[in-house]
Amino acid sequence: MKISKRLYSYYMVWPALLIYSLFFVLPTIIGLFYSFTDWRLDRTELHFNGWTNFKTIFSDSTLLLALKNTVIFAVVTVIGKNVIGIALAVALNMKLKTRNGLRAIFYSPSILSIMVISIVFTPMLRSDGTINKLFEAVGLGSLSQAWLTDPAIVIFTIAAVSIWQTAGFQMAIYLAGLQSISKEYYEAATIDGAGSWKSFVNITLPLLLPAININVMLTLIGGLKVFSEVFVLTGGGPGNASQVVGTIILRSFGEGSWGLGTAVNTLLFVAVTIISIPLLMFMRRKEVTE
Amino acid sequence: MNATLRKSWRTYLVEIVMLLGSLIVLLPILIMVLGSFKTSAEVLDFSLKLPKEWLFSNYQKVYEEGNLLRAFLNGILITGVSSIVNIVTTSAASFVLVRRESRLSNALYLFFFMGLIAPMSTITTIRVVQWLGFYGSITSVILIYAALNTAFSVFLYNGFIKSIPKALDEVAFLEGAGMFSVFFRIIIPLIVPVNATVAIMVFMSVWNDITIPIYFLTDSSDWTMPLSVYNFYGKYSRDWNLIFADLVLTSLPVFILYLFAQKYIVGGLTAGAVKG
Description:
The complex is a heterodimer.
Chain A: H1 14-34, H2 52-59, H3 61-91, H4 99-107, H5 114-124, H6 130-137, H7 154-179, H8 183-191, H9 196-207, H10 209-224, H11 228-233, H12 245-255, H13 258-289
Helix pairs in contact in A: 1-13, 2-13, 3-7, 3-10, 4-7, 7-10, 10-13, 12-13
Chain B: H1 2-35, H2 57-65, H3 68-100, H4 103-117, H5 122-132, H6 138-148, H7 150-162, H8 166-174, H9 179-190, H10 192-208, H11 211-216, H12 225-235, H13 240-274
Helix pairs in contact in B: 2-13, 3-4, 3-6, 3-7, 3-10, 4-7, 7-10, 10-13, 12-13
């Protein structure tokens, strides 16, 4: 006996749809429109100014540097969080005595606020800070750096702090993925004489692909949206050496150049959306095969 | 025999490497916790040395001067209400979207799903909130958080409600129940674990966030703990012992929540991420 689907009324969708549309979708849509205007704090009237804002972005050296830093941050954190995340997951999926405690320790930084983490790291990353002292103590004094004040490395330092914080979160997703792989595959491989590296490359990695895909997308999208780490650790400095898209938007907002800030936001929106389409297609395909 | 021996050696080696690795994670956290009990001179070496004398008075001082109770209550209000609004609206929406199985419901699901990916447009959100006349208020922040987390929650509920057999609804409908009573009597009791997962994930991300308060809370008396700690950090930049104590107090609520709710977090990750 079939019941009519009409019994499920769309009334129940309305509240979520309303909140989401009003406070997320509507600002995004008017943002596309405002990106092409001279919207400023001191203007009472808006004028279309075509591609002017985007031309400004691509000719201003600070804004270009912010775009470059955002990409560097995203790429470095994607690689770091996922390589370390997989390594931790594989190691902590073995029968270690301290396994549960270690899992909890590695996961724990990801529950803390980026604000807390960044403030804790600030004194440690100074030239005379804990990290340089540790290098000196083990005879690697030449590795000492001015972590947060050298313009050439500051964005990598911020990326490293971010990796430190959330590699354990990626680990948790990879662990869930590893636990869904049947042990029989490994037994068969051992009988065929495959070593552990071969098993890892031929069994673990391919079967972990759904988790890898989701984690890479999560870290990539999160990396492009980076803001809080930079805001607290350097505020975009020294000079403008560690500005990213997120801090530029705040700066434009503070300066009252709202049209320009919105254009930067639109650029981020377009980049993230283009990158994410493969994820959507992958997940839809997975739904079909299930 | 030889193979198992080699295997156990390798397990020991991995265990030692992992224990050493965990020090990298523990070191900054221990420096923070130990430093919070030191004097303002002693803390400056930022090391793992135990405090000569455990100064619990640092915590008292921070509590009095950091306006922490106010920030804590602001955080509870903002996080609590936005989590509840989020859970009520998204579980109801997901229920209908999953059961309808129509072109429109699929399109709406995708529409919500886009929110998982797209970055928010901050400056124009301020504009919308100004049009509505409540820019700077806690209400605006609550609604923005509810909106920002809609996509994630619909995604989690969607996966879970799909696994509840439709036959349960059908029996109730045949006995004359309406949609609301099916939702409240059948679906709600079955999705209690997902509710917990969504509540905890939303709670943690909202509690820890600083971006939205920076843009939307213009009055510092409305600030939440992570932002007020930043304020404190600016004001007391010489007293690292007090800063550390403030950081520990700011982290305590989420840490306690994590201890009690661990299984829901892991459950949520598994359900959402791996099963898809």
